[in-house]
UniProtKB/TrEMBL annotation:
It catalyses: AMP + diphosphate = 5-phospho-alpha-D-ribose 1-diphosphate + adenine. Pathway: Purine metabolism; AMP biosynthesis via salvage pathway; AMP from adenine: step 1/1. Residues 58-156 form the Phosphoribosyltransferase domain. This is adenine phosphoribosyltransferase. It is found in: Cytoplasm. InterPro entries: Adenine_PRTase (IPR050120), PRTase-like (IPR029057), PRTase_dom (IPR000836). GO terms for cellular component: cytoplasm. GO terms for biological process: purine ribonucleoside salvage. It comes from Dictyostelium firmibasis.
Amino acid sequence: MQESKYQELQKQAEKSVRDSITLFLDWPNKGVGFQDISNLFLSYENFSNVLDYYEYRFNDADLVVGLEARGFILGTAFAQRMKLPMMMIRKKGKLPGPCFRESYKKEYGSDEFEVQEKALSKVVAKPGKKFHVIIMDDILATGGTMAASIELTKKVLLNNDIKDFKISTSLISSIKALNGKEKIYEKYNDVSVDIIIEM
């Protein structure tokens, strides 16, 4: 990875995200600062800059995982650009068939995520290469959502006989005061956390 090229793409992505984020205070509950990235998807140039960065940063990816809901947009766009499969992790009750389930706490409540047990039944790992999974979402807050997603991803990989793998997580932004990045690193020493900007 050429440092100068990487830094150039990273700076472009950072500027595009900063230009796109709107902060809403006391939403959806009092005391919560909500980072809205909707404007990122309204600008072809800004969204493309983010995807350019991801394409360079995760050029050895084998699978993209998108989290409901904005992770679906990010994950699908990146997977299509890279010609990769994209697996969905959804809220409880949205997926048919046998599912793995994980509960998690977030900044303003709790919820459950699910993934189909056989979601990767048609995905084949390349022999001799560590299978690289990129989990994509928009904002990292407490880390609860991402931790649940990591657990589900590991379960479905093993259940589909993919045992030699590594997991990277990718976020547009984070709420730095909530220490989500540190919590992920404390829990998982084998997972990387990539955040374009920390606010």
